[in-house]
Amino acid sequence: MALHNIEALLEKYQNAETTLNEEAQLKAYFESDDVAAHLEHYKPMFQYFLEAKKEQYTKDVPLKTKTTTLYSWISVAAVTLLMLGIFIPNWNDGPKTLADYSQEEQQLYLETKQALAMLSDNFNEGTSSLKVLDLASENFNMGIEKASHVTQFSKTTQKLLKN
User: Fold this and answer.
1) Domain annotation covers residue 41
2) Which domain holds residue 149?
3) How far apart are CA 86 and CA 96, in angstroms?
4) How far apart are CA 53 and CA 104, in angstroms?
5) What does residue 136 show for φ and ψ, rounded to 5 degrees?
6) Which residue has better confidence, 145 or 126?
7) How far apart are alpha carbons 14 and 87 in whole angstroms?
8) Does 72 score more than 70 pLDDT?
9) Is 67 domain-assigned?
10) pLDDT at 76 over 80
């Protein structure tokens, strides 16, 4: 093989641009005994690649095949609870209407509904009062900001008057 061709292949090899066929040509060249003197330092590298290719991993790799039954039982229990949660509420012919309850239970329901409506109204009034306080707080913050401008103006005028 021409020395010029080997040098070109080595340049391509160092730039990671060689094909597998070209790398095979380089390996064959460096395995032979007639390697040019100025390329001798590449020979150990290609010999190392050949030796490394022959190496094999001989230790056994332990595979963890033991499965714990605890996790499988937990998953079975979770699925069972989920299924019970879905089917038990619908067990007795679907949802009841207000007419299905006794007169006393209907009265309690209506009183509870009225109390919750009153609570909701009072809560809404309280939140509207908070909105007024929020607006007052905003105005107060704007006043503080404008007062800081007056203070800055005062400092500036004092500097001007001193000079």
Assistant:
1) yes
2) 101-162
3) 17
4) 89
5) -65, -40
6) 145
7) 69
8) yes
9) no
10) yes
Pick from 87, 68, 90: which is nearest to 79 by CA? 87
Q: Can you give the pTM of this predicted structure?
A: 0.34
∠ at Cα 134 (131, 135), nearest 5°? 90
pLDDT at 87: 74
Beta-carbon neighbour count of residue 18 at 10 Å? 17
Which pLDDT band holds residue 90 (cuts at 50, 70, 90)? Answer: low
Residue 49: count of CB within 10 angstroms of its CB: 13
Q: Return d(Cα 104, Cα 64) in angstroms, integer.
A: 64
CA distance 32 to 43: 9
State the alpha helices, DSSP H only, in the chain: 3-14, 20-31, 43-54, 69-87, 103-162
CB neighbours of 135 closer than 8 A, spacing ≥ 6? none
Residue with tokens 């239970």: 105
Residue 24 within any structural domain of the chain: yes
